[in-house]
Amino acid sequence: QVQLVESGGGLVQPGGSLRLSCAASGFTFSNSAMYWYRQAPGKERELVAGISSVGGNTNYADSVKGRFTISRDNAKNTVYLQMNTLKPEDTAVYYCNARVSRWFWGQGTQVTVSS
After folding, report:
1. What integer pLDDT is reported at residue 54 of this predicted model?
2. Structural element, H or E, at residue 95
3. Nearest-CA neighbor of 49 among 82, 25, 91, 75?
């Protein structure tokens, strides 16, 4: 079965950095585009970034452009989200998303940006 396991979240000060990882299994990772979403308290889940199956194409929400970088390692079945210059408004639970037979989600990892 499809499994997505996120890691790397935590508490960081404004201006700091974090790197999220999502380990995928149960499907042909190298054939699938992958996405990161986030959901802040009281808000809808929003798309943060996406990457094509071989990594040649990426897209970002306007709010994170220039600060976040999505990447993938198909040999490790893992997608990453490098987050730099973090702001308090980046505080959210971050989810990995795969769209195979249906949409699959990981359990999420909490990112808190606070001084």
Report:
1. 84
2. strand 92-99
3. 82
